[in-house]
Amino acid sequence: MNADMDTPARMADSRGTRAASRRIPLSAGVLRVTAAAAVGLAAAFAPGRPAEAQRPPSSTDPGDAPALLSTVVRMALERNRDVLDAEYQLAVAGKQVAEAWSGVYPSVDLSTSFTRNLAPQVNFLPAQIFNPEAAEGEFIPVQFGADNIWNLSVNAEQKLFDSRVFVGVGAAARLEMLQREALRARTQQVVTRIRTAFYDLLLGREEVRLTGNSLRRVRQSLDETRAMREAGLAPEYDVLRLEVELANLEPNLRRAYNRHEAARRALAVELAMGPEAEIEVAGSLAEIDLERLEANTPGNRDILSFRGIGAVDKAEFAQFVRRAASQRSDVRQLEMTQDLRHAELRIEQVEYLPKVFAFGTYGLAAQQNGAPDFFGTSAQRGSSKQVGIRLTIPIFSGLGRDARIGQKRAALRQAETQARVAADRAAVELHDLVDELEEARARAAAQRLAVGQARRGYEIASAQYREGLGSRLEWTDAEVALRESEFNYAQAVYDYLVARARLDEAAGLVPMVDVDWDARAQGGQER
Question: How many Cα atoms are found within 13 Å in the side-chain-facing hemisphere of 353?
């Protein structure tokens, strides 16, 4: 069994060594490509050797430092493809506004042509037109046109009154505002996903570490128990029990490592990096102190400071919901959609109004025989000029306009209903997230105490077993309790951080999108 597990351990060591020599340049910094979890996995299968001794040596370059959460988010905002897609959509909406404004300006068209008559047209006219004494029914061939015919015309038109154009400009502007808000929403979602993926990676790394620690403790205890059995101080049952526990822990470590790798790949994809790029992130869930910001490491302080909202006072929760409703991107998008539907309805309604246009035309024509001479001489040219006003009054269009107005009115009512439903759901979601946040914080505080007690219980059970005063079953129960309490604390901190990230997005106050994080990071800890 141990021989089988040596293969993934060697693979992890090799992978970590190759990764340590590779650097991935990013616009906002450099992330060191490493395999921290793989090193932890390898260390777990090397008894008596701490994980730090097997970590590949790192460069003193500042880019080799583990990436902070704020740094990773900055990189994502510059590289994430969802954000780029939303920016392209906003650019399209901006051009649509410019297209709508084009209907306000005059239109000027110029057209010109040249015709070469290889055989000019000939018509027959009664001869009596030219000679009254000509016989009845006699015709004379007359050639119309010259060898070369030149024509040029310039047409200008200006809309003096067209309600559809002006309402359409307003609708296009509303569409651009809607796309701008959609860009904000997509950016908020990306930041929230990055935060969650970052926490997933920390949790996966913590699970690998804790399972590896448990595996080392069990292996060490197994070695001690075997020695005690040989000395006649321990029964064969204790050895068998530890061997079974060791066999159960080894696949658990593999599963933990696989979950860590899945979290790493998810974060790499969000950063528009290759799925094989391994990212070392700063922070440790097991060491985070939610109560005292100053007691944390720089990486953990960066995690705790990266927030959009402060504490939510339950006494002022209704006011908080009202403020959040005005900031939430989904609610704002539905309100903007409602305005856009109203503008679209107005566009159809103004089709009943008349349209007034001013127009002007200038024409120039010339004819000549022989070789082409551009528009000939002044004696061979003639010009024309016209100006006027055109009025168009719609009278009947087969009831199609009425049907379109009915469609737009129904779409407006639908948008109004969706906006009200979204506001109500937002209030429920905010309430649930605040409760979830408080529950996770309280659970973390309780689990922090449980970790200390479980660690103390494990030390007592280990000492009693070595002295022959306790049973192997008591030691095993204490070890399992320690492992579970440590992971439960990391899980509680993870749940708290994820809930806070979701609450920031639900309240419409996401760091680096709606909140100046650099200024917020200088403030105090959330209470």
Answer: 15
